[in-house]
Amino acid sequence: MKTFLDWSAYDTYGIGDAYSGIPATGGNYAKAVAVCMHSRDCQNTGKGVMCPSYRITGDRKHSTEARVAAFKAALNDGAGEGAFADPRLDEAMDLCVSCKACKKECPSAVDMTLIKTEYLAQRHEIAGVPLRTRLFGGVPEWTGRYRALMRFAIRLRNSFGPIAKLVEKWLGVTARRPIPEPAPKAFAWTTPARRETGARGEVILFVDTFCHHFDPHVAEAAVSVLEYAGYRVRVAKPAATDAEPERPLCCGRTYLTTGMVEKARGEAKRVLAAFRDEIVAQTPIIGLEPSCLLSLRDELYSLGLGQEVGDLGKQLYLLEEFLSREYQNNGLRLELKPLNLPKALVHGHCHQKAFGAMKAMRKVLGWIPGFSFDVVETSCCGMAGSFGLEAEHYEASMRMAELSLLPAVRASAADTPLIANGFSCRHQIEHGSGRRAKHIALLLRDALVAN
């Protein structure tokens, strides 16, 4: 069976294991599906993230285990690629938010996010890519080429309810919440490094699509923090041979989650070409948006681009991960001042939790003198990229947020600082509570003694 992702990592899976039935068709993809051992951890409702859709419905059919069962049944029918037209898969995958929790919290490490990407790519091959999917998946392309037009169109839609309702009827984009608007000015990514030298060496800042076009102040704050810490900061730029040298680099995450695999592969190739020298030099590469940076570190391998992917992954860090590592291994000590703020609430992005990055978040926040905080025990915030913007999923999105995140925010005092590194998480919090959360880069920038 032709697959769009590289499933060769599963080639030896099932040898000597007590598998509960690898489907007869589907090759290594079928093996990836069959890693489920029916532990039913995905049907827990206590601590952890998995599985958001089961948590809000209480219905087993919306759990990871049931999704696996649906794929097994479809692949066992022997229809090859045609198995992906099975309506059972549409129903099973409807509420999957690609949170990555199953990869960490499932004892068998079922990677439903990649399983879903392959499923969507196969569906697109059969039925074509819907217009809404092309719009959501293509955010890096549209903002890179038509940013001013996008900003105007989104502001118009957000300002007039009748237009929002027309868009919902036409595209299925819910009229019940605003679409994030690009900032008035994008991040000035072509500006040379402000420091020619850095006592602690050089780092590369990977500014993702969302920080570049929507929250440039987050990237600017990160530059200030890293420079204050003694690093020379270079912003990642396309290679000289890039076909689109004027368009910033992109991790390809929006394309992967919408099943547009070839587009994602194209973005990944741009990233690898841009970082080829950095891979050789082992220069640290720092990202700000959890889903973007961790996609580069985890999901790039599925695109079959060779050994460089693994080498690159060893140099990729979220801002807080890098600072924590430098503190522990290389003697970094940031001189920070008290902020005199009330006790804060911290919400971790699903991918931060899935990849164990919350420990670094806690450590770095603890450097701010007198700063105290609680990490809210949450599952997925429910926004999950475009999921919360889809009209048919709006209610499910808000129910996920109401499990614990929004009640915790509302129960806190109005002046309680809210911290969330995820772009989608911050928008969900603002939509559901009317309050704004900050990225950790902004908090650290405010705490610099120089400010």
From TrEMBL:
Annotated signal sequence range: none
Name of the protein in its database record:
4Fe-4S dicluster domain-containing protein
Where in this chain does the record put each 4Fe-4S ferredoxin-type domain?
Answer: 85-115
What the entry lists under InterPro entries is as follows:
4Fe4S_Fe-S-bd (IPR017896), 4Fe4S_Fe_S_CS (IPR017900), Cys_rich_dom (IPR004017)
Q: Which organism is it from?
A: Methylocystis borbori
Q: Which Pfam families match?
A: CCG, Fer4_8
- Which keywords does this chain's UniProt record carry? 4Fe-4S, Iron, Iron-sulfur, Metal-binding, Repeat
